[in-house]
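## retry 2 of 3
previous attempt timed out at serialization; input unchanged, resubmitting
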Amino acid sequence: MKERIVQYDLLKGIGILTVVFMHTWLFLDFRYWCQNWFMAVFFMVAGAFAAAKGSWWNVTKKRFVRIMVPYFIVATLSFAYWFLLERHFREETMACAPMWEFLNIFCPMNMTRYEPHVYNVVLWFLPCMFVASVVFDLMLRFIKNERCLLGGILAIVLVNQFVPFWAPFYLPQALSAVPFMYLGHLLQKYRPVWTAQVSRWYVPAVVLALAILIASYFAVVPCEVRYNRFDGGYLYYFFFATLVNLALYVLTLKVKSCRLLTWAGGASLAIMLMHEPIKRMVAMAFSFLVWREAASLRSVWWGAALIALATVLVCAVLITVYDRLVVRRMKR
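## retry succeeded, writing output
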């Protein structure tokens, strides 16, 4: 068994905690900045392990079970909660057609003026990740020449830039993810080289990485990028998302351990699936306890931080219970 690379858990941990906090805090500038890069982190990490061994069919079946089966289960449960309860008092989703939202579980795509999957907005990520992994795996299997592979990646970027289109299972968004998977593939393939170079110039590399993070904030804000609402014309943002991901890679390269980030990274898929409806319930609970509107709480950083922290804690409890009651019994 290959040794688990802690750095990738750290990167996913940073990504998922940013996702939860960004979805909680209503400060738009921070949200716009995060939306530019945080999903790309997961695609970059996935790309590091995209060159899977075994037949394409067997690898794809395993990916389907690992990604799409949880998607269908959580999407169905989230829809049921929204349809039976939440849509009657959540004003921004009252106009959404329940039949369309239900069918969108099984043929996910975004062609409406509303958020895709209004009952659990982050669910778009899983079909997108599955399709992107399948596409990139096919590219790695059939394009052996590195220059041709790079040419294919550049072609995908240009298609996304100039030929926007809509397709089921978030294919346009998946194509947007493939370049970041290629970045992760390169970082993993040449990991000893990157590690040696960054270690040699570690302090300047860290300073440069921090400068990139700060500069990217002022370069991107106030423009909004939403990968789940494909509009095309993302070439400018590909550049900054790539820089930010490289900066995060440098910053985590020499970190040996961080229990919070490592745990969050290992549980990132479960947290991604659960946190959105849990966050709304937690926000309503806090609103009731402090006699203050949920939107007002989420508009200040400390209120958003409390709600995000409580959301992660609830997710941690549910994950622990599931692990002890279901996973361990299945292994016996």
